[in-house]
């Protein structure tokens, strides 16, 4: 009995007790969020873009070549930020999914949905730049070591999440109830994130261990400073894209609701016009 | 007993996450040998693979061990992990970053105590140093940086 009730609470969108409260903070929060997002979106996007351009230009034209790898190392200014955001994107999905499942926060589901596509794009760019780097540095475009394989799995997880999420949304729009499948998948998929990070430490791999760990860097500051600017810049771009996509999703929902209200009003008017006039009825 | 639904969900999801992490750790523990990309010399010597089985051997190219054979294509060197070392023979195009004292992953077969490689992959470490500073000690590098500023 208890288990069945728990299962229902996990799977069903919201039960009757919560309905009124849900509706309340559902309306209150997006409004506050939208006020904040209106100026935060362009700030993140343009600030991030400027920082990313500075970092890439610094890395390509002004930073020194590496002692061992020469100019090949310059791709690091694209590879590392995109790898960081590929993993950051899924972390966003996982945290947002957790908030959605536990607190039913209406913005959390939207945030998870908004983070999936940019996360997937950054993961793909990371894999592509890594492959281009691997050819001159290792002598192979691709190897099936722990790091590369777990990163490819992350890309496939993104594809799975997006497919699941759009299927669940289609179902909800068809009035077949809301599904928590995508959020649960977002949470389960998060186990891959520590695996990606530790893959180069737990297992022998061709990919080198991390250069930058908490408080330490095996990278000379000539490389490190533009790289960190790039990481911050690309992160701001990611944040800006997520905010913009969240605003678009909210605007979409708002337009949909308005259309539905109009359609209902029109229907009511048509019904009123078609119905016999009560005054006429008096005459009969 | 009235538990708020959200608290119940918090506990349930928390338990699920802990179970998930436990399952993942078990899987990783089970995979700890299979998921490695290569064997180090210690592994190869402790449990030599069959002579016809393709395996990967990884480690550092021992300094002073690289010798090019008379045909000019074949190269002999020693791969070491600090504890054990295995002689390697390879004929073919070497990756640019393949140098003594650097990391290497050799693909091939272990035959009669020698690893016969048919492909070499260079493995570089996580250190990035500008060309001008590579032969300096940390003290010299710091001094150079101080002078240029």
Q: What labels describe this entry?
A:
heterodimer; A: 284 residues; mainly alpha; two-stranded antiparallel ribbon; 9 helices; 2 strands; elongated; B: 149 residues; alpha+beta; OB fold (Dihydrolipoamide Acetyltransferase, E2P); 2 domains; 3 helices; 30% helix; 28% strand
Can you walk me through this structure?
The complex is a heterodimer of chains A (284) and B (149). By secondary structure, chain A is mostly helical. Chain A has one domain. Chain A is built from nine helices and two strands; from the N terminus they run αααααααββαα. In chain A, strand 1 and strand 2 form a beta hairpin. The longest helix of chain A has 54 residues, at 221-274. With 149 residues, chain B is of the alpha+beta class. Chain B contains three helices and six strands, in the order ααββββββα. The longest helix of chain B is centred in the first third of the chain and has 27 residues, at 5-31. Chain B is flat and about 85 Å long. At the A-B interface, helix 1, helix 3, helix 4 and helix 7 of A face helix 1 and strand 6 of B.
Number of individual domains of chain B: 2
Oligomer: heterodimer
Q: Count of helices of chain B?
A: 3
Order of helices and strands of chain A: HHHHHHHEEHH
CA-atom Rg of chain A in angstroms: 25 Å
| Architecture (CATH level 2) name of the largest domain in chain B | Beta Barrel
Q: Classify the secondary structure makeup of chain A into a structural class.
A: mainly alpha
Number of domains of chain A: 1
Low-confidence stretches of chain A: 12-28
How is the main sheet of chain A built?
A: 2 strands, antiparallel
Count of DSSP-assigned helices of chain A: 9
Separation of termini of chain B? Answer: 70 Å
- Largest sheet of chain B, if any? 5 strands, mixed, barrel
CATH topology of the largest domain in chain B: OB fold (Dihydrolipoamide Acetyltransferase, E2P)
Shape of chain B: flat
CATH class call of the largest domain in chain B: Mainly Beta
Percentage beta strand of chain B: 25-35%
The helix/strand class of chain B is: alpha+beta
Strand order of the largest sheet of chain B: 1-3-4-6-5
Could you tell me which chain pair has the largest interface and how many residues each side has? A-B, 48 and 43 residues
């Amino acid at each position: 009995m208890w288990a069945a009730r728990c299962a229902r609470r996990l799977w069903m969108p919201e039960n009757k007790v919560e309905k009124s409260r849900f509706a309340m903070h559902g309306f209150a929060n997006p409004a506050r969020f939208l006020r904040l997002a209106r100026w935060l979106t362009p700030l993140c996007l343009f600030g991030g873009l400027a920082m990313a351009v500075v970092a890439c230009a610094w890395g390509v034209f002004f930073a020194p070549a590496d002692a061992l790898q020469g100019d090949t190392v310059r791709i690091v200014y694209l590879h590392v930020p995109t790898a960081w955001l590929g993993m950051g994107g899924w972390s966003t999905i996982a945290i947002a999914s957790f908030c959605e499942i536990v607190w039913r926060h209406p913005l959390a589901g939207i945030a998870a949905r908004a983070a999936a596509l940019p996360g997937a794009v950054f993961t793909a760019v990371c894999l592509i730049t890594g492959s281009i780097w691997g050819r001159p540095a290792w002598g192979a475009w691709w190897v099936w070591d722990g790091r590369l394989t777990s990163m490819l799995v992350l890309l496939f997880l993104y594809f799975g999440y997006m497919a699941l999420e759009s299927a669940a949304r289609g179902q909800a729009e068809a009035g077949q109830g809301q599904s928590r499948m995508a959020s649960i998948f977002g949470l389960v998929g998060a186990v891959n994130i520590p695996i990606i990070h530790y893959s180069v430490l737990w297992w022998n791999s061709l990919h080198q261990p991390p250069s930058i760990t908490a408080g330490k860097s095996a990278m000379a500051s000539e490389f490190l400073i533009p790289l960190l600017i790039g990481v911050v810049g690309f992160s701001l771009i990611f944040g800006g894209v997520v905010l913009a996509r969240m605003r678009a999703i909210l605007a979409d929902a708002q337009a949909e609701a308005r259309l539905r209200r109009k359609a209902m009003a029109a229907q009511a008017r048509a019904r009123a016009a078609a119905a016999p006039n009560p005054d006429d009825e008096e005459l009969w | 007993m009235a538990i708020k639904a959200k608290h119940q969900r918090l506990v349930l999801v928390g338990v699920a996450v802990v179970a998930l992490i436990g399952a993942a750790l078990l899987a990783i523990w089970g995979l700890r040998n299979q998921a490695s990309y290569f064997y180090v010399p210690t592994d190869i010597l402790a449990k030599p693979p069959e002579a016809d089985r393709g395996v990967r051997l990884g480690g550092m190219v021992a300094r002073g061990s690289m010798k090019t054979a008379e045909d000019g294509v074949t190269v002999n060197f020693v791969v070491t992990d600090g504890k054990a070392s295995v002689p390697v023979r390879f004929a073919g195009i070497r990756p640019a970053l393949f140098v003594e004292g650097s990391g290497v992953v050799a693909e091939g077969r272990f035959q009669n105590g020698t690893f016969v490689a048919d492909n070499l992959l260079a493995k570089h470490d996580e250190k990035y140093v500008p060309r001008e500073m590579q032969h300096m000690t940390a003290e010299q590098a710091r001094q150079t940086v101080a002078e240029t500023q």
